From TrEMBL:
Family indicated by similarity: Belongs to the creatininase superfamily.
MF term (GO), any: metal ion binding
Origin: domain of life: Bacteria
Name of the protein in its database record: Creatininase
Alphabetically ordered keywords of this record: Hydrolase, Metal-binding, Zinc
Zinc recorded as keyword: yes
UniProt-listed Gene3D superfamilies: Creatininase (3.40.50.10310)
Protein's GO biological process: riboflavin biosynthetic process
Cofactor entry: Zn(2+)
Species name: Microbacterium hominis
InterPro entries reported in the protein's UniProt record: Creatininase-like_sf, Creatininase/forma_Hydrolase
Amino acid sequence: MTGEFPFTPTSRHWADLSGPALTALLTERSIAVVPIGAIEHHGPHLPLRTDALVAETIATAAVARVASAGIDAWVLPTISYAKSDEHHWAPGTIWLEGTTVLDQLVDIGRSIAMTPAKTVVFVNGHGGNVMLLGWANRELRRRFGLRTFSMPATAGGAGDGIDGRPDEKGQGIHGGFSETSLVMHLAPHLVAPDMPARNVPEHIAGLTHIGFNRKPVMFGWTSDDFGPEGVIGDATGANAAHGKELYDRGVDFVCEALAEIDGFVFG
């Protein structure tokens, strides 16, 4: 089927359209946005789908906004099962081997390449996926000629001890202040009323090179290395108002990134 399709879609969800409708509506400028998260342990207070929830909610809102501004972006179903082996010990975590995740991303890219769309963007809600997404970007570029990008769903960081926020010493990476606040905003009914105790590995925070959040020396770890609850951070004081700020910043960031991607050229 070619030419104009006889209706204007009301949804920017890729999977809401029929195959012929999608083929008729997409062009080489179309952007396929793929949220990716995880189903993994987030302490006793947050849902297992925290990362998938964040990625899907922010990606969907960003696609709707940029589409209204004329960017032809479409959001695909969220990839929820991913590389979460740092939480392998915790019941409820559903994780895949890294090679399995990579194969899945390549297969998804190959399928997108069969449509007119030539740009794929992964919006990621889980830190364990970051290196795999970098690998997948190049695989999809090399194998199928796609323009490929990946980005975090949020621009939040560890609590900094300012304006009532806890000081997580740069170590608030999992189930801490920011992540808990974000879920309090997105899905308050899924957050348990009792927060876990502060669990910040301050001995690591004092190191110059080894650590989390962009320190240059990475190390192998599982979340139970830091205690039996699997939380790395300080959820005490988390609140929905801060979560809304993080959400708004995340949507703004993804929208700005999609605008740059829309105009991106090589050379």
